[in-house]
Every structure is written in C-alpha cells, then in structure tokens.
Amino acid sequence: MKHILLIDLHSASHELFYQLTAQGYYVHQVNNAFDALIKMETLTLEAILLDFSVPKMDSFWLLVARQAPTPIIVIADANNELERINALELGADDYLSQPVNVRELQLRLNILKRRTQMPLNDITEQKIHFDDVNYTVYLEDKPLTLTQTEYRLFKYLYERQGAVVTKAELQQRVLHKKLGQFDRNLDMHISNTRRKLAKGNLPRDLINTVRGQGYSFSF
Question: What is the first-listed, main subcellular location in coarse terms (predicted)?
C-alpha cells in the first residue's frame, strides 16, 4: 500500500484524507514537525503533503531540515505567487492550492516519481556485495559504509529478502537481546541505515516497514 504523510491543522483536510484513502492510499495525518519526522523515519512514504498554514516555525524547519528524499508538496488556501516561490525556495517539490483536486495530485505525484526515479531502482541480487571486514555494502559498485550493527541488520534482512522479519527476531538475532515494550533501538538503527542509503543516492526503500509486523528487504 502507498503511504502518504499529511501535515496540516484543518478539519477541512478530512475530505482530502477520505478521497486519498478511497484511491488506495494509506494516509498518516499529523499536525506538527516532530510527529512528522517520526513518520518519515519509520515509514516508506510516497509523498508528504504539507499545509502551509501549519505554524511557520514547524513548517519552515521541516522543509529545510528534511533528510528523506520523499517528494514534498505544499498545499495553500490561495494560489499566492510569493507563497509558492517561498515554498519552493525552502525545498518543496511542488505546490497545490486548496481545495486539492485528487486527480491532479495523483498526476503530479506520477511526474515527481518519474523525475526522481533512479536507475538504481533495478538493483538485483547479483549487484550487491558485502565486505564483512569494513562493514561496507556495495550496491551497483557504490560503497555504503555502515556501523557494525547497521551492517548486520542490512545483511540479515537481505538474506531473508521477500520475507517479513519481526522486530523481536531482529532484536534477538542482531542486537542479541529481547525486544522491550518501549525499546526503540532497532527502529533507530533502521532509520539511520535508510538515511545513509538516501544520502548515498541509493533507494532507501530497499528496507520496507511492514505495519504491525516488522521489516522486509525487497528490490
């Protein structure tokens, strides 16, 4: 299922929420940058929709500080030229006016996806190599240097590609301890690995979050 993050404050967004849900999207709705970043770090997102009426400190900080290569589309009440330029300067990929036409949004998402799609998306098993000494993964001959824990997590998931690996199994097999109720160490290591993939211009969705179950490795 395609996940979309909706950052806004208005009840009017409920209509957009239901329209997107009806089109097969799973919409995660938050109203501040902190919750948004948690979603960005734990989910593989199709897009981020940001209502420009979210308090400026939050929205500006989010646009400037974002790490994920996920497309950000700013939504505003009016087609204000100055606001549009401001949003694009801050790092937004596109801009839509309220009320949002879902069909237009889908077309824009498709365009952004084609524009940002990397040739590395066709990485195959034969093109991934592991250096157990230096904790480095080579994808399409591009080195990705990880910490020892990140490397072991990546390799463990890779060796079980196509299957969903539970958090409890990863915690036990890789971190060598039981998963606690409020333990976020595993999520942190997965998040850091995805961030390094993105910074290396590699597809971060090699590691997928399977909601309520765990993680999986998929090409």
Answer: cytoplasm
